[in-house]
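Input set for joint prediction.
Command: fold jointly, output tokens.
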Amino acid sequence: MIARAVPWRRLLLACLACLSVSCDRLPGKPAPPAATPGLDVSTGFRAFYAERCAGCHGDEGRYGPARPLNAGIYLASIPEDALFTIVRDGIPGTRMPGFGGSSVTGVSDEQIRAFILGMKRTWANPTGLQSIVPWQAGLSEASAEHGATLFASRCEFCHPRAGNQTQVAGAQQGAVPRLGGDVRDPFYARLVSDQHLRTSIIFGRDDLHMPSVRGPFFTANGERVVEELSVGEVDALVAYLASFRQASTLSGRFEGGTP
Amino acid sequence: MGRSTLKSTASRCLRWLDDRTGLLWVLRHSLFHRVPVSAKWWYVFGSATMMFFAVQIASGIVLAMFYAPSAAQAYESLVYINQQVPSGWMLRAIHGWSSNAMCLMMLVHLAQVFLHGTYKYPRELTWIFGVCLCVLTLALAFTGQIMRWDADAYWGLGIGAAIVDRMPVVGNALRGIMLGGEQISGATLSRFFALHVFILPGTTVALIGLHLYSILRKGISEMPKAGEVVDPATYDKAYEARVHKTGVPFYPDAARRDMVFCGAALIVLVGIAAWYGPMGPGALPDPTIIEASPRPDGLFLWIFAALALLPPSSETALLLIGPPVGIALLALLPFIAPRGERAPSRRPLSVLSFGVVCTGIGVLTWLGMQSPWSPVMNAWTSTPVAPEFVERRSPLALQGALEFQFAQCRNCHAIGGTGGMRGPDLTEVATRLSWDQLVRQIQQGGGNMPAYGKTLSSAETHALVAFLSTLDGGRSRAQIPGAMESQSVSDAMPTAASTPLTSSSP
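tokens >
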């Protein structure tokens, strides 16, 4: 058998040549530094949301302790400028921080607008928007007494006083579970603005089974009522719930109206 | 000019050079000095360490041609090397990974020398130079990390400066010298650049020379054998006799093994560099971003973990005394145990201490990778409260959950397995703490937790406690909104163990 010498030098040179030619195609080549992420695309919007919003507004915009954003009519109702102000500056006095301008995270205005656009495109649903009660408070004088009567006939079944475990007839029939919890807690009233109460009444929370202003509601006896609350009735309910604030310092702080 | 004339001219030149410098003698002595026949594959790690150092010198020189050591341009110049310079990223990758490889080989070499008792008589000086080289190599790696001038480098420097600042009397001045001023600035980068590129490599080259010289002078040790005791009175003569009788020339016998191992290591290095690419640069350094979670490179993770886990009261003492004493002890080892058995089987204490140190470093490195003590700085905005902790909660408890996120409790406390690990998991906190205890803990803090009494209003605290009181791991079905008993305004809050108030739902 004739032993053939291995051409080591040529082999090495060939390897080096291959390496230098294909260097830019090797897996270790770092990607170019990312420019400002384009948030108008769905993925960009979702990345922004997951990083900055999901903590309070919930995964996929639902089931968070804060207002769900994956709520079609709510998103469609709030003008872009109002949303922009909220995301950029936050809502003073509440748990909504600002993410733009001088904040630590310093998101640019363009990014915030792109984010809002992406969120609206993905989650907003204007179906039935025309008939919904305006999201901002009107100028009408609302009566807390009227609100109390309304509350008893439309809300109390799901929002009983804490500790009031008296089962009403309808509940015993299994009409609906009483899931709302006490909203007449003075501490709760102090923590939320009138606008928060108003937004909650108008849009409800679909993910937690709270109906919107369109109902259905339950009477004190647990009977199902399908009717829409009027603007005046919403104002009256807000006035009634706000009256539990007692020595509140918050009542006058949100007159500009932020959802 | 004929071939023979050329040859004779070259030969004359060499002879002239040899006559003036003695270089050929040095080369001949280095290459063909006799080494013990038993010096086989265990002895390749030192050569591999030096080979990686040579790779770093070569790649570092080229990188220095493109790197701009100014605070404004350093980061951009690295991006430029990665993206624009042909094969520049590969060069950075090789430089970075060879640094890791050099440290690894050096540690293996150190472990082998320690376990084989090679530091004993008469190789004390070789060992001391080696320990110094070990420190220098780690310093090279650390200063190299600073060259990336990214967020990790910035915060790493900040921590380093804080440690130096703790030194009594001279701390403040030393910090000024280290940073080139009061704060981390362009002057800091220039200082570290000078260290990384001139001072440390220059010193390393000099020490490598001394290390090699002392190896040549006192020879390579033989493989240890149980029962072969080192006795300074007889060792030299016996060693010389054995090497003279059975030894082999360094080249080609031992050198061949070195070359094979170094060649293989080089191939692996290029493969790793090609696959994993260069290290960093990471995020831009920005002192206004407090959400950075700086973490050193893998090699220093154990120090990072040890610093994080040290009890605060002993931190300064251990930080300032620990390293110098440890290094001094290591360097003085040949004088502490100059004679006796070299075989690991006869030195149980050494093997045990080696095992303890390795296990300690391994565990600390693992902890450093996990860093459970670091708050997850973005958990409050990015880690959702799971639906099961939102459903069936009262509006007040939901406000409390919001407070839990907004006050950044989530950064240190997990619920349902997500969130920070610095504080205890609160998924079942209501089974451990009553309403009053929760209020006290939030308002006054305790343990490692800061007090929030001045940050949260009474309503916010109340809501937070209302939420936390629902976290009982699902033991009771008390989470029905409205179930949380709360008095009008009085301080007598109900406890979590209060009677569960269930809804009409099944």
